[in-house]
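User: My notes are a mess, but here's the protein and S-adenosylmethionine's SMILES. Can you give me a structure?
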Amino acid sequence: MTEYHDPYQRSGRYLDIMIAGWWEHHGATVAEALRELPAGPVVDAGAGGGHGTRLIARTLPDTPILAVEPSPVLSAVLLSRVADDPDLRPRVTVHGDDLLAARLPERIGGMIMSNLIGHFSPHERDRLWEDLAPRLAPGAFVLVNLPPPTEPAHVERAAMSEIHVGDRTYLGWAAAEPAGDERLSWHMTYETREGDRVVSTDDVHYDWWTVSEDSLRAETAPHRLTVVPHGPAEAGLYKILRES
Ligand SMILES: C[S@@+](CC[C@H](N)C(=O)[O-])C[C@H]1O[C@@H](n2cnc3c(N)ncnc32)[C@H](O)[C@@H]1O
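Assistant: No problem, the inputs look usable. Here's the predicted complex:
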């Protein structure tokens, strides 16, 4: 097994606060899909600090949840969020594994892969679909989003978030360049300011595999999985279900 390289080693401290906006915007659409899931444990794959885990718990109050998060910094945020909440604590299990190596239940009621798919190469995704297809209970699905751009493209540097906590402001910018077939290189800048003073700046690069709706359909079909869009197109959400 290859050693897991954590792309969030430096940026993980900002990820949880900066991704909260995505959940504010799309949480209701995700919850709508969750309500359609059959009984059974739900996996939050690449759970980050647990915004999705918390949404699963609120939406499905009796469901056991497995939250898989390999980044040590994000896994620490997740574990604290779970341990602090009397509802989450008895029914959320946190695994610090790479999803490709995680020990998943034989049968699952569903899985969320939010803002995650670009971390897996085509070959790794093929392994994932192969592994997940037989685990899906009847009616269960993997809910995945395909963040734009879904093909390699230049993305102009733009502000992505500005969060105020106490006297400090946490700012994030993102830009991207094509980095080969189905590949992007993201350039993120995270800045902490106190008044006019820049307290710290972190520049982080990471690679991301682009996945389009067509390629998702093509790569899941051999595993007898079918892809169904969910919610407004701008959410980029898809259910991946077993063919009936
Ligand atoms: C952009 S964050 C999204 C976090 C969370 N799903 C959300 O939407 O708030 C991507 C997450 O995927 C995790 N991740 C990356 N590679 C992974 C892998 N091979 N297995 C499981 N999780 C992975 C990262 O550690 C990170 O927490």
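The chain has two domains: 12-148+211-242, 155-209.
User: Great, I'll file this with my notes.
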